[in-house]
Amino acid sequence: MPLTFHPHPGMVLMCDFNTGFKAPEMIKRRSVVVISPRPRRSNLLCTIVPLSTTAPNPVEPFHHRMDPRSLPGKLSKKETWAKCDMLATVSLGRFDRVMAGRGPHGKRIYVAERVIADGPEGDLPGRDDCPRVGKSILIP
Q1: What is the pTM of this model?
Q2: Is residue 136 part of a domain?
Q3: CB distance 51 to 83 below 8 Å
Q4: Is residue 138 part of a domain?
Q5: Which three-class secondary structure string do you get for 8-68?
Q6: Residue 74, φ and ψ in degrees, nearest 5
Q7: pLDDT tens digit string along 66-81?
Q8: Among candidates 31, 63, 36, which has minimal Cα distance to 47?
Q9: How many domains, in total, are found in the chain?
């Protein structure tokens, strides 16, 4: 189910890349980190950094291994990389929250949490420790 709110920078969400993209672009449902600021006016677009459990080969300065504490639910169980060379601006209709598990009666529990952003080991893409692509997209 699509989001009913504009996500904050640093939120980890699921994004559906199944329609409108072609290989070697991102072409499946995957986790992402929001890097665009919340708009002052109505805006149905959001800029994201895709995440991947496949380690880049070779690892470049624009790749960043995420701290598992930054990732909700099952995402924290696997080594995850921010692929900051593959920034995308996508519609809010592609987003959903991350399923964190199931409640006591089997009901799904969804979350939209933020990555760890403080300190030199923070995981918010666009920081000085991981300049990635384009100095113009920086999260304070």
Answers
A1: 0.79
A2: no
A3: yes
A4: no
A5: CCCEEEEEECCCCCCCCCCCCEEEEEECCCCCCCCCCEEEEEEEECCCCCCCCCCEEECCH
A6: -65, -20
A7: 888 888 888 888 999 9
A8: 36
A9: 1
Q: How many CB atoms lie within 10 A of CB 98?
A: 19
Cα–Cα distances in angstroms (integers) from residue 134 to residues 9, 118, 129, in the given order: 17, 21, 14
Enclosing domain of residue 56: 12-111
Long-range contact list for 115-118, CB < 8 A, 24+ apart?
Answer: 115/10, 115/12, 115/33, 115/66, 115/67, 115/70, 115/71, 116/67, 116/69, 116/70, 117/10
The whole-angstrom separation of Cα 25 and Cα 4 is 26
Rg of the chain on CA atoms, in Å? 15
Placement of tokens 């624009």 in the chain: 62
80-117 pLDDT, tens digit per residue, is 998 888 889 999 999 988 887 788 888 877 777 777 66
